[in-house]
Amino acid sequence: MIILVYDRFVNTRFPKVIEAAEEAGEIIRRYFGELLEVEEKTMAADFRTKADVDAEAKILEILAKEYPDYGILSEETGHNGQKSEFQFVIDPLDGTNNFSLGIPNFSVSIALQQNERTIFGVIHQPITMETYWAELGRGAWNNSKKLSVNSENKLPKSTLFSCVGYDNNLKERQILRYNLSGPKAQGLKRWAENWAVAMDCCLVADGRAEIMVMKGLELHDFAAGKLIAKEAGARSTDLSGEKDDDQSTAFILSNGTSVHEQVLSAIKLTHYDR
Question: N or C: which end of the chain has fewer CB within 10 A?
């Protein structure tokens, strides 16, 4: 059953984008739990299923009708060739590996960028039926609940999410983890590698986690989630602590307290920012 987006999102200028995310989510939800054939893309860890393809087709159908002149960059089909200052960035199923394993941690992610700056983002979790969304300068929401990061400033009480690209250096990541949570470190409440970047961003935005360290990602992985977190009060920098932008594929996203600087210090010791 599709949620009536117009009843819950009367304050957004982009209800059709939310509708596209939720309709795609309904397709994914129906497939969840089935044993679907896997199509390998660049390597064994990088693959798609029929759920990815069908969800993307539904999103493209809705957006192409509503925004015929906008560019669209989508994970499975690439760019539509439309030249425009506006571009949708789509991940029809972020967390495909989790989905295929029967782990209910995945989402639909759609961002709208204007001249490479994200102005709107929506992330829909089909199992919990949560729809996170944000507009630039207008705040972030989970359905009709306004979002805000938490104020935790102690690293041992913080949850850190980490995700890297498929070709990232495993040894560097292990050293960073040791520097943050090894026997000589302050420690963390939890280090988690969920392989669900969009939802990781939402959990920081919703005050349920404190910080993320991301490196070597694709734009569709984080474009919507990064805006949602920042509109909820999150701080975003590159891995050396400098200001980043909406296209940066390596970044720290946090609740903006001193945990940000503490993680930056560990990154510098590890040389993970190179």
Answer: N
